């Protein structure tokens, strides 16, 4: 679609600190992004300004420095660790005589490389097209004229207008297909809800070790690498946990500082696995110097997608990178586990994590001792069928004293199936919550 230089593998990175901006981008993280995109960073140009130039983003002096770095290193592309407007990108390309990409463009390129499933590819294409739609003009300046000649006279349509129309049509088509995917996901989630199967969703900053942890817990073979955005497509696996039964574990895309809003929108179908979860495992790289900032960024994205009210268990991963650190579980004032320290690489603390997940999901588990007479045979059969009976003994009067352990919602469902109300149940002494 565009007549532009191809993206090469040698890049000059540009990072400017602005005194007028409260939150600056992290240069180290951007270097990791560039590495994840498979590009070799041959030089870094840094500087500071009060605020960006509206025309070139940088000043004339810094532009000369970037141009010199491109020529000396024979770079193919200049990557800005900032968001550039379409006109700034166009002006910079004209001045530097090479391809210019901003931070969003780099992230989109990584996403395009990583997407594996049909849905993931659709989501990436949607984000790319919406990003591209404002930048179409620079690729077709030589064709911005009305068609002419015999048989072609009349109002016509410029090549640019044609491309914009085609682009709008493609974006609408992708939206329709993603809506279909979203409906299918909703159907799957509703089926899990009807079957009362809890969902545990892994969230966290990119490269925190979510996929490695997911593989360790589920023995799946999800692609895991020391790269930003190694995982794009959500992966679901079924687990069986004691006292809980079947649980669906979901691995999701990692978050990042200032995640482009277009990506959040495009990946909403994927991120809905997070908003509908019973429990979030917030995986944190405990060895990262910017750990607290990363936690804050993840919480911001959870707020943006409406998942901030889902219960969270923090998983402090990579304790193998800390000196003489042993796995442990931190609890709140009510005794509930809120933080587990593990190493997904070595497996240290994984059993503690299992136990903590069970404890958090089993907050409403009931242990009851009920008296069932001959006329309560249906409830007794349902309890046995659900695997909730721990012990059973017959009394002299013909009643059965049944010890059961199950979740509160399951108990009320079984009562409903048996045609009984809660106030009709007879309890043995010392019955109730334990």
TrEMBL record:
Keywords: Cytoplasm, GTP-binding, Magnesium, Metal-binding, Nucleotide-binding. GTP binds at residues 204-211, 229-233, 251-254, 317-320. GO terms for molecular function: GTP binding; GTPase activity; guanosine tetraphosphate binding; metal ion binding; ribosome binding. InterPro entries: EFG_III/V, G_HFLX_dom, GTP-bd, GTP-bd_M, GTPase_HflX, GTPase_HflX_N, GTPase_HflX_N_sf, P-loop_NTPase. Mg(2+) binds at residues 211, 231. Its cofactor is Mg(2+). It holds the Pfam family MMR_HSR1. PROSITE patterns: G_HFLX. It is found in: Cytoplasm. GO terms for cellular component: cytoplasm. Gene3D superfamilies: 6.10.250.2860, GTPase HflX, N-terminal domain, P-loop containing nucleotide triphosphate hydrolases. Coiled coil: none annotated. CDD domains: HflX. Monomer. Associates with the 50S ribosomal subunit. HAMAP family: GTPase_HflX. GTPase that associates with the 50S ribosomal subunit and may have a role during protein synthesis or ribosome biogenesis. Belongs to the TRAFAC class OBG-HflX-like GTPase superfamily. HflX GTPase family. This is GTPase HflX. It comes from Marinobacter nanhaiticus D15-8W. The gene is hflX.
């Amino acid at each position: 679609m565009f007549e532009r230089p191809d993206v090469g593998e040698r890049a000059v990175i540009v990072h400017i600190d602005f005194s007028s901006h409260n939150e600056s981008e992290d240069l180290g993280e951007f270097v990791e992004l560039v590495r994840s995109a498979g590009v070799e960073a041959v030089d870094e140009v840094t500087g500071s300004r009060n605020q960006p130039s509206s025309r070139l983003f940088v000043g004339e002096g810094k532009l000369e420095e970037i141009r010199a770095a491109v020529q000396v290193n024979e770079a193919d592309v200049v990557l800005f660790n900032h968001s550039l407007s379409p006109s700034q990108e166009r002006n910079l390309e004209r001045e530097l005589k090479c391809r210019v990409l901003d931070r969003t463009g780099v992230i989109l390129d990584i996403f395009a490389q990583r997407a594996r499933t049909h849905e993931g590819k659709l989501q990436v294409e949607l984000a790319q097209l919406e990003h591209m739609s404002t930048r179409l003009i620079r690729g077709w300046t030589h064709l911005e004229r009305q068609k002419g000649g015999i048989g072609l006279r009349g109002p016509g349509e410029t090549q640019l207008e044609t491309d914009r129309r085609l682009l709008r049509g493609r974006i609408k088509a992708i939206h329709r297909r993603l809506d279909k995917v979203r409906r299918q996901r909703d159907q799957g989630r509703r089926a899990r809800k009807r079957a009362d199967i809890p969902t545990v969703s892994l969230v966290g900053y990119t490269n925190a070790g979510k996929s490695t942890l997911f593989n360790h817990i589920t023995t799946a073979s999800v692609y895991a690498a020391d790269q930003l955005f190694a995982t794009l497509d959500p992966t679901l696996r079924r687990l069986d946990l004691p006292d809980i039964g079947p649980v669906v574990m979901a691995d999701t895309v990692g978050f990042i500082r200032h995640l482009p809003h277009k990506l959040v929108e495009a990946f909403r179908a994927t991120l809905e696995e997070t908003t509908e979860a019973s429990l979030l495992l917030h995986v944190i790289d405990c060895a990262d110097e910017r750990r607290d900032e990363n936690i804050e960024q993840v919480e911001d994205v959870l707020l943006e997608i409406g998942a901030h009210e889902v219960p969270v268990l923090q998983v402090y991963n990579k304790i193998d990178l800390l000196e003489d650190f042993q796995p442990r579980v931190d609890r709140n004032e009510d005794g509930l586990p809120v933080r587990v320290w593990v190493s997904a690489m070595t497996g240290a603390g994984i059993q503690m994590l299992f136990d903590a997940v069970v404890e958090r999901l089993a907050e409403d588990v009931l242990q009851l001792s009920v008296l069932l007479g001959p006329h309560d045979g249906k409830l007794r059969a349902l309890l046995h069928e659900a695997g909730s009976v721990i012990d059973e003994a017959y009394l002299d009067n013909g009643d059965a004293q049944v010890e059961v352990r199950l979740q509160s919602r399951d108990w009320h469902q079984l009562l409903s199936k048996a045609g009984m109300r809660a106030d009709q149940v007879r309890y043995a002494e010392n019955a109730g919550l334990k």
